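[step 3/7] fold_predict: job queued, chain A
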Amino acid sequence: MGQVSQSALEAAVKDYRDPYFEQDLFSMKAVKKLDANGGAVHLALALPYASKGIEGGMRQILSTNLENVEGVESVDIQVEQNIAATKAANNVPALDSVKNIIAVASGKGGVGKSTTSVNLALALAQEGARVGVLDADIYGPSVGMMLGIADGTRPKTLNNQFFVPLEAHGVQAMSMAFLVTEETPMVWRGPMVSGALQQLLTQTKWGELDYLIVDMPPGTGDIQLTLSQKVPVSASVVVTTPQDIALLDCKKGIEMFRKVSIPVLGVIENMSVHICSQCGFHEPLFGEGGGERIAESYDTLLLGQLPLHQTIREQTDAGQPTVVAEPDSEVAHMYRDIARKVSAQLAEQSKDGRSPFPEIVVSQE
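[step 4/7] structure written:
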C-alpha cells in the first residue's frame, strides 16, 4: 500500500468551508494536526468559537472527504474549542476570569431584550462555552426569575469581599434581585445605579468564563456610559422589534455604542412574526423587514429573526427558557444559530483587537 498524500489530505480538508467564518479550516488556523499513519488519518481541530451544534455535520463531511483520498482506511477527528479573549480597551482592566463581555441592549423597553439575553446565554452554553449573565437592569431586574431562581435566594460571600454567583441551567448569574426582595423598588439616582453596576460586576467571583452576557436596561443613559467607560466590554448586540418606533430607538442604541467605540456585532429582530398557538398561522403584527433594513443601513449583521409565540413567554415566566425547555424546537435552534453567529463575529474581532474607548467629556455649554 502506498503512502497517503499529505497534499491530498489537505485538499480534502480545504473542501470544507466553515458556515460562520465562510473560510476553510486552514485559513481559520483551526487545523492543529493532520497526518496519516499508514492508512489511518488523524485530524485535530480547534475552532475559535462556540460551535458544538455543527460538530456532527462537520465531522461527517470531513470524514467523507478524507475517506475518498486514495489509501485512507480510517479517519479519526478530534474537535475542541479555543475561544480567545478580546483585548481590553484603553486602561480598563480586564476581569481575570472573564474572556469576553457582551452587552445586550435595546433603545426602548418591551422588545424582549431580557428574554433574548437569557436565551442567548443558555444557547452559548449549549454550544460548549462557559457563560455567565449579569443583570444590569438595576431598576427592573428579571434575569433571576427567568432562570428559575426563587425569590429570596441569596448569593454566598467569599472572604466577606466577593459574591459567589448563583448557577442555573449551567450558567452563572448575578443580579440586584438576589440582594433585595421582589417588592423592593430601587429609588436611586444615576450615580448610585452606576456604582451598583460596577460593584455587581467587579465584586462577583465569576468562575472561568468565555462569555459574560450583560443584560442592559433600555435606553442610552448612565449605566450605558458607565459600561463604556469603566468596563472592558468586548462588543454589543442590539435587540429590536420590526415596528417603526422601535427601529428609531434601535438606531439610537447603535449610534450610542459606536460613539463610545463598542463594536456592534449585529441586530436581533424579536417578535418578527406572530405564530398563532391555536392554528399556527404566521402574521407579521409589527411590520416586516425592519431589522434587515437597520442592519443594512449600519453595515452590521442581522443575527436572527425570532417569532412572537405564547410558549416563549410561558416558558420564560416559569423559569424554563425555550432553549432548555424545548432544546429541539425551531425557536431553540434559532437561538443557537444566533449564539454561533455572535461567537464567530467576536472571534473574528479578537484577531485584530479593537480601538480604545474615547474619553467622554460632558460640556457645560
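[step 5/7] annotate
Residues 330-352 form the longest helix (23 residues).
The chain has two domains: 6-81, 98-352.
exit 0
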